[in-house]
TrEMBL record:
Residues 827-898 form the PEP-utilising enzyme mobile domain. InterPro entries: ATP_grasp_subdomain_1, PEP-util_enz_mobile_dom, PEP_Utilizing_Enz, Phosphohistidine_dom_sf, PPDK_AMP/ATP-bd. Residues 46-342 form the Pyruvate phosphate dikinase AMP/ATP-binding domain. This is Phosphoenolpyruvate synthase. It comes from the Bacteria. Residues 1-25, 441-465 are annotated as: Disordered. Gene3D superfamilies: ATP-grasp fold, A domain, ATP-grasp fold, B domain, Phosphohistidine domain. Pfam families: PEP-utilizers (PF00391), PPDK_N (PF01326). Residues 444-457 have a biased composition (Pro residues).
């Protein structure tokens, strides 16, 4: 692990200790030089990630590693401690603007130069040259960097530091050790560390010196497919000579795929060049003999043998590995192994029976985040709380949750129903599942009777649920009563009693969520929507007709949230001093409400904001994650959308917008019914349509209420758990209250009951979370590790346009505003919001934009529902929209047909 920042540079006391602690260890000079056989992965802080892995590799039966030694991080610390200019330069580098590439480049170069020119003390130099002499002075060596932040489970740092091949002689080895130390500060290494949240001053460099291997062939083995993520498939890249030819891109490699001990695919490249060692040191490119160029670098038997070694290494380290290898006359040598950090983790498998003779049972998982419009990584308390309160079992992987749909896919009847309902929400999920099912032997069908009638979710007239609209008020009252009881009772609980109470509260939570009447009310609105879209498409040729018919439907708590923020802007707009003050408020400035009252109009403005927070303060971006800060905890988050409303709207906009939408829906209804009556059997069609319009308007708003109730309950749980965390801090069990976010709910309960916690667990969980944040979760994931995102199989999208799912009808052209964080929003009238996903917390922005484009979403997810409420043309599920569309570009959103054009 990286050392603390204060234990690094210019420490005279530590330097004195180095001198006093110099002693012989294992026949080589220590603590500065250690043989590879003396180290393992527990010593990464002393020898760096690469050396630690090499030491562990050398202990695996049947795995051969070239002999060598390691110059430890203590040697590096000693050398830089004697060069005070290094510490000063690192302080300047830490203070540099991370976006100023030129400054980072120049400062990195200065640090490298200072480290490379630093004098190596005589005793340290003697230790290194003595190790070289014992290994053979005339031998050739590979001198390779081994940083403490390298080959970690969460960040590989592959290729970030330097390697030098065929280094001959003690003086040359010393020179290249200094070069390796300096390579810790290449621009690419500094940039990589910043992306992974690692301070330059906490990373140290060891150097591995190994006897050079002169191979016939070399390359890379991935014990899991690095593209698909499949853990059953290993891939081997191979070429002639040294591996530098492959790494540098000088030649294309032969590529072999191996599954279950058999080569299942191979591509043999034409290899015209290779890299070989020079007798006096260094390397050179050479031409491959014409008769050898199309010969495979490895035989199939050698490939299978190599993968067998790789599986042994993978088992030793416990995760898929990226392995560098060499082949000589007497077999394979392993010169490096590191975790493959780009793979999305696989949920812990649940034992399931065999599904076919001679086959293996495998699982298929669907992403919960894509259904909930929150695909960011969650901290352990967040995902474990969602597990505890969800209606179906959920599995964690990479800080996200997945549902195992294998049992439903195994039966033809349930499979059809599952694909139908998921396809309505998100066609990409359906396509991803169908892609998995098309693979030979995956999830073989279980014999089952053919389903009777249409599958679940089919919008036939007979399937539309008839529910009395009066139940909506009853359901809201039930929810509010249950919530009030929770609020009353939870404040009296603490310690173990709190967790006993929460176990009961979670059961009540699930009872409210699964209320059959509530589900009927939700389905009544959804089925009526499907019916209208299907029937009016058939009878009138209208696409997505329900979008206009549901404008300004009553009782939608999420759309009301956006309109109510317009009313807050009305309380601020008349007071220029308030507007000027808010323009200077930082989103971290959460005591700004106290300062408002000092300004003209400030008392009324504060009351308006606090009233808003009283109703919606439990909401936030990513609200399914209990660890996310709520608006009432960070009210300054609302300042940017409030200012947008002040700038873009006039007084009374909320009431006007709602009434305009209602009138537009009424006019659409009159138009549709009039056109239907002119058709054959028109009166019947009009009567049925009127009934469905009434149904959808009665229930469309309620669909958002259960989520609101969940988030209200979550806020009460959070307040109680943070109060408990405060008590743990006072008792010295936790360092700070938010440490509880790094624990699962069960772990937190155990800590509360035992009053004990291993501090290393918190640090490890933080590191894991940082790595999970960099991963993109797939819509569908298999137990083999295949990450499947799905694709649109359409031929109606113009060339160059971005395909998506049409969720809110209409077409609009405007300036794209690519916004990844609600706090960064700065919108003007007519802008089109482009983002990864939107949950209810984004609704305040919807009142001020002309259209919506998201990477994630479906027909009935929150962003789609509110876009329809506000009459915004919207296309969701647009793959990589935030990367393919640049902020400020003009785009045209085709909300009716489901695609986006980039105009320039």
């Amino acid at each position: 692990m990286p050392q603390p920042a204060e234990d690094t540079w210019n420490d005279d006391v530590r330097d004195k200790r180095f001198d006093e602690g110099h002693e012989e260890v294992g026949g080589v000079s220590g603590p500065y030089v250690l043989g590879l056989g003396e180290v393992d992965e527990d010593q990464a802080g002393l020898v760096g990630g690469k050396a630690a892995h090499l030491g562990a590799l050398s202990r695996i039966d049947g795995v051969r590693v070239p002999d060598g030694f390691c110059v430890t991080t203590d040697a590096f610390r000693r050398v830089v401690a004697r060069a005070p200019e290094v510490g000063a330069l690192l302080d300047r580098l830490a203070g540099a603007d991370p976006d100023d590439r030129q400054a980072v480049r120049e400062l990195s170069a200065e640090v490298r130069r200072a480290v490379e020119e630093a004098v190596i003390p005589d005793d340290l130099a003697d230790g290194i040259t003595g190790a070289v002499a014992r290994s053979g002075e005339g031998a050739a060596y590979a001198v390779r960097s081994s940083a403490t932040a390298e080959d970690l489970p969460t960040a590989s740092f592959a290729g970030q530091q330097d390697t030098y091949l065929n280094v001959v002689g003690p003086a040359a080895v010393l020179r290249h050790v200094s070069r390796c130390w300096a390579s810790l500060f290449t621009e690419r290494a500094v940039t990589y560390r910043r992306r992974n949240g690692i301070d330059d001053r906490t990373v140290h460099m060891a150097v591995v010196v190994q006897r050079m291997v002169f191979p016939d062939a070399s390359g890379v083995l991935f014990t899991a497919d690095p593209v698909t993520g499949n853990r059953r498939t290993a891939t081997v890249d191979a070429g002639f000579g040294l591996g530098e030819a492959l790494v540098s891109g000088l030649v294309n490699p032969d590529v072999f795929a191996v599954r279950d001990g058999e080569v299942v695919a191979r591509t043999i490249a034409v290899k015209e060049r290779a890299v070989h060692a020079l007798p006096g040191g260094g390397t050179r490119e050479v031409a491959v003999a014409p008769e050898q160029r199309e010969r495979p670098a490895l035989t199939d038997a050698q490939v299978v043998e190599l993968v067998r070694l790789g599986r042994r290494i993978e088992a030793r380290f416990g995760c898929p590995q990226d392995i560098e290898w060499c082949l000589t006359d007497d077999g394979f040598r392993i010169v490096q192994s590191r975790p493959i950090t780009t793979l999305f983790p696989v949920p812990v498998p649940v034992p399931v029976p065999e599904v076919a003779e001679g086959g293996r049972a495998r699982s298929v998982y669907v992403s919960v985040g894509h259904q909930q419009m929150m695909t960011d990584a969650m901290k352990p308390l967040g995902w474990s709380m969602w597990q505890r309160t969800a209606m179906v079992p959920m599995h964690e992987a990479g800080g996200r949750l997945f549902v195992d749909v294998t049992p439903r896919l195994a039966s033809p009847a349930s499979r059809a129903a599952l694909l139908d309902i998921l396809g309505k929400g998100d066609p990409l999920v359906r396509d991803a599942l169908e892609t998995v099912l098309e693979r030979d032997g995956f999830a073989p069908p279980v014999p089952d009777a053919d389903p009777v009638g249409p599958p679940a979710g089919s919008p036939s007239e007979a399937s539309v649920t008839e529910v009395d609209p009066a139940v909506v008020a009853e359901l809201v009252e039930r929810s509010e009563t249950s919530l009030a009881a929770l609020e009353r009772d939870i404040r009296t609980k603490s310690g173990p009693e709190l967790f006993d109470f929460l176990a009961e509260a979670f059961e009540e939570h699930k009872r409210v969520l699964s209320d059959p009447l509530s589900i009927q009310a939700i389905m009544a609105g959804m089925e009526a929507t499907w019916w209208l879209n299907d029937k009016l498409g058939e009878w009138l040729g209208e696409k997505n007709a329900a979008d206009t018919l549901t404008l300004s439907a009553p009782g939608n708590i999420t759309s009301e949230m956006g309109l109510d923020l317009l009313d807050v802007a009305d309380a601020i707009r008349p007071h220029p001093e308030l507007v000027a003050f808010l323009n200077g408020v930082d989103v971290q400035h959460d005591d700004f409400l106290d300062e408002l009252v000092k300004l003209p109009g400030g008392t009324g403005a504060r009351e308006a904001i606090e009233t808003y927070l009283g109703r919606y303060g439990m909401r936030c971006v990513g609200e399914i994650d209990i660890t996310r800060p709520r608006w009432s905890e960070r009210p300054a988050t609302l300042v940017p959308p409030i200012l947008d409303n002040v700038r873009n709207f006039g007084p009374g906009a909320a009431e006007r917008r709602f009434e305009q939408g209602r009138q537009k829906a009424l006019q659409a209804e009159r138009d549709v019914l009039s056109r239907l009556r002119a058709l054959p059997d028109g009166e019947r069609k009009a009567d049925e349509t009127k009934r469905m319009i009434d149904q959808v308007r009665a229930f469309a708003g309620y669909r958002e209420y259960p989520k609101y109730g969940i988030v209200c309950r979550y806020f009460l749980y959070k307040q109680a758990l943070l109060a408990e965390a405060g008590r743990l801090v006072r008792d010295g069990v936790l360092a700070e209250p938010e440490d509880v976010y790094c624990l699962t709910f069960q772990e937190l309960e155990d800590v509360v009951r035992s009053r004990r916690l291993d501090d290393r667990l918190i640090a490890r969980r933080r590191e894991e979370f940082r790595s999970y944040e960099t991963l993109t979760p797939p819509r569908v994931l298999t137990s083999d590790g295949d990450a499947v995102t799905g694709s649109y199989r359409r031929d109606d999208v113009p060339a160059g346009a971005l395909a998506g799912l049409a969720v809110s009808t209409g077409s609009v052209e405007g300036r794209a505003r690519v916004i990844l964080d609600l706090a960064d929003a700065e919108l003007e009238e007519g802008d089109i919001l482009v983002t990864r996903f939107t949950d209810p917390s984004w609704s305040p922005l919807f009142v001020g934009v002309a259209g919506l484009v998201t990477e994630v979403g479906g027909l009935m997810t929150h962003g789609a529902v509110i876009a329809r409420e506000y009459g915004l043309p919207a296309v969701v599920g647009v793959d990589r929209a935030t990367r393919l569309i640049r902020d400020g570009q003009r785009i045209r959103v085709h909300g009716t047909d489901g695609y986006v054009e980039i105009l320039g």
